[in-house]
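User: Here's a protein and a ligand (glutathione). What would the complex look like?
Assistant: Let me lay out the input and then the predicted complex.
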Amino acid sequence: MLKLYYARPSAYARPVWLALLEKQLPFELIPVDLGGGQFAPEFLALNPFSHVPILVDGDFRVIESLAILDYLEARYPSPSLLPTDAMILAKVRMVQLVTFNELLPAIVKLLIQDENSNEEQSAELPYAQLRAGNTLSFLEDLLGNCPYFAGEQLTLAEIVAGTLVHLMPYLGVPLTNYPKLKDWSERLWVRPTWQQIALSAEEWSSFKRRMRVIPKIWQRHRRQRMKALSQKT
Ligand SMILES: N[C@@H](CCC(=O)N[C@@H](CS)C(=O)NCC(=O)O)C(=O)O
């Protein structure tokens, strides 16, 4: 059976989890405690970069969320989550990459700032808001009047962007200026598959709290690892 190493709130693991559900594949979820569990030797043997998600399919292991999504699509093509038309495929890829490369860094910054709202706001906060708004405008235009980015077909564009766009109002970026994206997001979240990965309000606030300390834990582990690795060479 397929195995997915994941953490429930992980922005990179959630699309893979959702793709498995949309494809109706049987799979086992293996939770990883990102408070340090990702530095355990058994985990590092699966992913030397200490990240979730990891997909294990028999003897085959795939890391990197976008590579996993492509693997699932090629290996388990039905139902299809990727168009073949060149222009539509380019649209889907743009949505995936812009979401991870532009929107996600802004979300992380807004999350941390949100928790530190009593501290003086740094220049990074307005930049994150601008970056988020810029990405949402781009997505709104790209979606146009279609139900999905690829037209009538739900694809990996929804699987990636749809797991993050709905968070924006909780981070001080309402979707009212992006009405088509707002409707699109609401349509996605009534799907039973999406409901299965929904975080409760409690999980969400505990995640926000952990985001304040977790990067410091990661830094400490990484320094120890760098030391250990440099002693080996
Ligand atoms: N490029 C990777 C990024 C994965 C990633 O950064 N995952 C985070 C969780 S959202 C993680 O596992 N962080 C733990 C660490 O870096 O030690 C992907 O797309 O899979």
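Summary: The longest helix spans residues 201-232.
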